[in-house]
Amino acid sequence: QLQLVESGGGLVQAGGSLRLSCAASGYTFSSYTMGWFRQAPGKEREFVAGIKWNNGAPYYRDSVRGRFTISRDNAKNTVYLQMNSLKSEDTAMYYCAADFGGLGTTGVRDYDYWGQGTQVTVSS
């Protein structure tokens, strides 16, 4: 029903910026809350940022608030994650995910569809 493809990852120095994109194909994209998650080697996948389907309101985990900005363009079926002031702790595989009808969801199990991920590496 929904396929997600991430892009925009890469290698950056600490303090730098990256912009991730997630292109969706399928049906009823506008009815999904979209989220970004990340997973570092040996660690659990964790919520990074979300954006609600009904009003586009963003929400973030505390450690990225003020540094990351999530946005969506429903006309383009695309969600973005602008990452500024990157830290080594941000190094991870970043995944785009979709939660049908969800509002303010942050759990991995809340999300119905997942992309294959894009790697973000922050050097110091």
Number of helices: 0
What is Rg?
13 Å
Classify the secondary structure makeup into a structural class.
Answer: mainly beta
Describe the global form. Answer: globular
- Separation, N- and C-terminal Cα atoms: 41 Å
Nearest-integer average pLDDT? 96
Proportion of helical residues: under 10%
Q: Write down the secondary-structure element order.
A: EEEEEEEEEEE
Describe the structure.
- By secondary structure, the protein is mainly beta.
- It has strands at 2-7, 10-13, 18-26, 32-39, 46-51, 58-60, 68-73, 78-83, 92-100, 113-114, 118-123.
- Strand 7 (68-73) and strand 8 form a beta hairpin.
- It is globular, with a radius of gyration of 13 Å.
- The mean pLDDT is 96.
In short:
With 124 residues, this protein is mainly β. The protein has strands at 2-7, 10-13, 18-26, 32-39, 46-51, 58-60, 68-73, 78-83, 92-100, 113-114, 118-123.
